[in-house]
Amino acid sequence: MDVPVWVWAATIAGIAALLIFDFFAHVRTPHEPSMKEAGGWSIFYVVIALIFGAGLWFVWGHDHGVEYLAGYVTEKSLSVDNLFVFVIIMAAFDVPKAYQQKVLLVGVIIALILRAIFIALGAAAIEHFSWVFYIFGLFLLYTAYTLATSSHEESEEYEPNILVRLAQKYLPATDEYNESKLTIVRNGQRMMTPMLIVMIAIGATDILFALDSIPAIYGLTKEPYIVFTANAFALLGLIQLYFLLGGLLNRLVYLSLGLAVILGFIGIKLIIEALHGNELPFINGGQHVSAIPEIPIWLSLSIIVGVLVITTVASLIRSARG
Fold this sequence. Notes:
Helix content is 70%, strand content 2%. By secondary structure, it is mainly alpha-helical. A two-stranded antiparallel ribbon has the order 1-2. α1 runs antiparallel to α4 and α2 (35-60) packs across α9 (238-245). It is globular, with a radius of gyration of 21 Å. The protein starts with a helix and ends with a helix.
């Protein structure tokens, strides 16, 4: 799919406009969104994403439309799982509810920038090295294993990453929040507030999230434009979703297991595609391996949606039973 430069520019401008709108409509005035507000805007962003997908389907055809939808559903599901970590970080730094939207908006912007970089690197690697699918596939299988063997609990202790530790060690900081300010001047010295430390923590965490999500969606589509837009629309509305789900996150006890199945499936799909285009001399003498049939995108979408529905229903039943 050859996407004109003006389409890329218009898409990026539209996403930037939505982020600016998010700031003025929600973040600029510090407050904790009500369930009604969070629910309404969450639906709004999902509808926008689906309308975009319908337009993509109409302009570029059925296959690309289904690829976008499968990518969007996968990335949205991974974003929900990432909210567990955000909850832990917010609790660890005791971020006031009224200012959590600002932290999340900065996190979304950082995530978009990082994913754009990884998407470009991934596209370049795929174009020049077909064996990169082996790496992506094995990485997703490893990620699936770690998800299946880990648990998400709000009470889980947060361990600062290296960027946070360096910032806390070498940069002057205060332990008190000053509204949503990132720095303050105290006794003539510029000092960081915990708000800046939290944003560093969120940004560093976004790097790990991008490492998981980009290989996953490249297992569903090879089109950088679809990879980018599916990621972008999955991240938009994440702020409202954070407040909407709230305590519901702890009730989704099987979500990580479901995502592990999805990532494991995509990992296998990537390895199969790598075998079909195999050029490595130590595998089948450098010849393509076509004995295993390719997994069609409609089947991938069906499996992804099916697993998510089953794990969500099972989680809610389990939580209701206590």
